[in-house]
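Researcher: Please predict.
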Amino acid sequence: MNKRWMEPSFYVTIPTSFVVGRDGHIGFIGEPTKLDGVLPRVLDGSWRTCDQAKAADREWVAEGEAIPRETALTKPIYNKLRPAMQAEDWKTALSAVEEGIAVSPDNLIFRQLQVKLLLHRMHDMQAGLPVMRQFVRDAINRNFENWMIAALDQLFSPNYDHSDFPSAERLAIGKQLSEHIMALNLPQGEGRRFWSYPAIARYYHESGNKDRAIELIELALKSLDGPEAIADGLKQYPDLLHALANFKGENICYGALCAAPRKEGPSGGQGGN
């Protein structure tokens, strides 16, 4: 998939959706959250001639011109970063990431990895907190939903130990990010719930509002169309079902997929690596 689809498309975001039309040609490449507006038009044959498709094509061409330049600049950095991460040489990895940010300051992978290395691998709160705060400010100021979700993940993922992070500040930032995400009025509407609500739910659960956390996870599941779609989504994101089981404190089943509450992880949430 990477070699035959992602690389020729010049897309680097994961997940990326490819919609193949009845004529066997690719009709759309982009974020899964945009599929609600795209699929019906691909199916009825009106997509290629609509203004939305033309705008998507222009955006794709613009990105296609910019991404090869960025790829040429960042490829040597990734060549240093990958072995450093595999060797758990966090200092070398951080140096590569900071080099990447200097070359590509809007690269989300570099920005969130910088936070992860400082806070969760090197446990350097003195250097990590200002970087985390700046990441949050940039996410909110630019109104980038994926950046805000990434920031929430750094703050509330059960895979990380947050015991050194000032609790009041962590919850205050979580509240700020969650409110901004919920206030977004994106054209894709309901479809984005499956992507954003689980991250927000973790904040509410840790802030003591368990009912709101459960409600958001259930809304995320309901945003999918039917049991088969839910099952497919949960196969990709099994932690969603485990989160609901943890929040409710009981076994949860959707179709043939079931989850039991997990033991507490590093931050007092679900377990994880």
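Model: The chain has a mean pLDDT of 80.
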